[in-house]
Design brief:
Length: 362
């Protein structure tokens, strides 16, 4: 089951080692880590490597269920115990008997239910709503949270006695930013999972891999998996260079990372899809070209001898870029923003029009 936890970084290898060490016991484990870091995957690994693996693994997200329903979901209820209770309902503790119960986002549990949970953990008995008889339960509990429970205890938002009951084996799960060595392998696994029938998985160029390693990943592994799914939909079977991906398809902070490191890499390859910020003659509406040329150069009418349209448009573009460079003291990044085009697109045009000596990186 540890094979589902991808990576060989020191941070994740330490987690795998602790999982192997504590899984055979019945000790309660508190998994700490940011949202999207894979806490449920760790809980499943603990279950699968335990003597309880032949029985059920039952998860419940304490933050996703309304408070008025959470007690029933955890402990069950009897028919007629409240309006809408049309039949008996087994709670998650009962469903997990002889197996493992995973209490995700335990830090969001209401205080009154924390009291009832503490009693269950102490006595190993549950009282379904509306029942006069307690049920014995043999359950291993694994809890998880992204919150600072010590701080919550200090603020009176989480019971101290419950905290110590849950925190028998603390397991800290690193954020993706703390295990960046694993990003390429994780992306490859997600791309393999997301690929369409008959297609090869999407691949990342060396530049794209560098961007992903420098990015801070606020959404952690969940954000990386989302990106693999997005690229599979857009570029099935292709190699993806982030310089050719439309800006709207990338997180804003990732665009900043891209701009910061792109000058250390060779120019981007030809785009795999049309880009909206590159002006080409064939893309223009031909009946409007005469007006564009007149406005740009002050031509009131076309010369009798005619003109070479493509050359005129190229000269207009060159002049505008040169003027923008002068206005920004030859700062490429500022010029790109002034012209509302990508920095990489601007660099290509600077090279095309031999304006290299007029530009400086920023």
């Amino acid at each position: 089951m540890l094979s589902t936890i991808i990576g060989k970084s020191p941070a994740i290898m330490a987690v795998k080692g602790l999982i192997e060490q504590v899984a055979p016991s019945d000790a309660t484990v508190l998994v700490r880590g940011p949202s999207g870091a894979g806490k449920e995957l760790v809980a499943k690994a603990l279950h699968e490597l335990s003597p309880r693996s032949k029985n059920r693994f039952v998860p419940i997200n304490c933050a996703a269920i309304p408070r008025e329903l959470l007690e029933s979901e955890l402990f069950g209820h009897r028919k007629g115990s409240f309006s809408g209770a049309i039949s008996d309902h087994k709670g998650r503790f009962e469903l997990a008997h002889n197996g493992t119960l995973f209490l995700d986002e335990i830090g969001d549990m209401p205080m009154d239910l924390q009291v009832k949970l503490l009693r269950v953990l102490q006595e190993r008995k549950v009282d379904p709503i509306g029942s006069q008889q307690s049920l014995d339960v043999n359950v291993r509990v694994i809890a998880a949270t992204h919150k600072d429970l010590e701080k919550a205890v200090g603020l009176g938002e989480f019971r101290e006695d419950l905290y110590y009951r849950l925190n028998v084996i603390p397991l800290a799960l690193p954020s993706l930013a703390e295990r960046k060595e694993d990003i390429t392998e994780l992306f490859a696994r997600f791309a393999e999972m997301e690929k369409r029938n008959g297609d090869a998985p999407v691949r990342l160029s060396s530049f794209s891999q560098a961007v992903l390693r420098h990015y801070e990943w606020p959404g952690n592994i969940r954000e990386l998996q989302n990106l693999a799914h997005r690229f599979t939909a857009l570029y099935a079977g292709q190699e993806v260079d982030l310089r050719q991906v439309p800006d709207i398809m990338l997180p804003p902070k990732m665009l900043e990372t891209l701009s910061a490191i792109e000058e250390d890499f060779p120019a981007a390859p030809p785009p795999t899809a049309p880009q909206s910020d590159t002006l080409e003659v064939d893309d223009l509406n031909l009946p409007n070209i005469e007006g564009i040329v007149r406005m740009a150069q002050g031509i009131s009418h076309l010369p009798d001898e005619g003109l070479i349209l493509k050359d005129h448009i190229a000269k207009i573009e060159r002049d505008i870029i040169e003027e923008a460079l002068q206005r920004t003291a030859h700062n490429v990044s500022q010029t790109a923003r002034l012209l509302s085009i990508r920095r990489t697109t601007l660099i290509e045009k600077i090279n095309k029009y031999e304006l290299t000596n007029s530009a400086q990186s920023a």
